[in-house]
Amino acid sequence: MGKRLSDNLCSLYLGAANKLKPKKAKKKIIAYVESYDDIAFWRSVFADFEDEHCYFEVMLPSKKNLQKGKKSVLMNDLGARLGVNMVACVDSDYDYLLQQTTSTSRQINNSRFVFQTYAYAIENYQCYAGALHEACVMATLNDHQLVDYEGFMRMYSQIAYPLFVWSVWFYRKRDLNGFPLMEFCSYVRLDHVNIRRPEECLAQMAKRVNNKVKNLEKRYAHALNEIESLKAEFEYLGVTPETTYMFIQGHHIMESVTLKLLGPVCTTLRRERETEIKALAMHNTQYRNELTCYERSLLGIDVVLRKQDGYKESPLYKKIENDIREFLKRMG
Asked: From CA 227, how far away is CA 233, in angstroms rounded?
């Protein structure tokens, strides 16, 4: 009797252990990404689509060397094997907007085994305006909203939009010297942000942008009809004067726009909380202890932006989800 009970327990244990084996008997789909930073983003994307039938394993494009980047994902020998068991995940950069005008844009926009961000890069999602207030709360533990973040990014986009259209036009013409990307970014940067009057830095930027647009319209008057046609095409692709910041170089939007705004905002919010702690403390020891506890709970706003996922409500993110859903439907 004791031996039979022991055998039954052993059998139950082995059965449970087998169930603990990760993703047993599921179909594995390899997803190659451009860099280490991209792994967490695409893992979060694919996690919502994993079920008892399939799962994704996100990795860099090579196990033999440290080669990374879009070209490594799309152009090396892995690219020839993309299919139902192997997909590529890339930042769109300008390729989504270039559509069929370059070989890379054609591959990215036409292949059902290539998933793209649609936004310029992952950083644009991390700077999604609808999630910026929550990011500030996470970084400061203070729910006081000092700036209308969505309104600010909408105004920023409206100002940048006319010059942005010119930037893409030059890329479509493959004229990378006529108006380089870094020059464009220099016009749509933010200078010092006064959170009491955030509109002032936008006004300064508007002067730079308007002067440059007038200069380009004068020098390239023959292209004005093409510029208007490009605006119409952009609207079809989801690029509007209000959403332009999602399509501008992601590193620029993170470092020269979003952090320029949120840095002083978070500093002010932390000082507010510290002042409140000092005012409410019964004595100096309690003040020091409470302040230490608060400071230990804080996170840098740059860290929070890279970890939060409020961008999942973005219309562009929904396009990624639709692409994956269609891929899995065809596969199934």
From this structure: 10
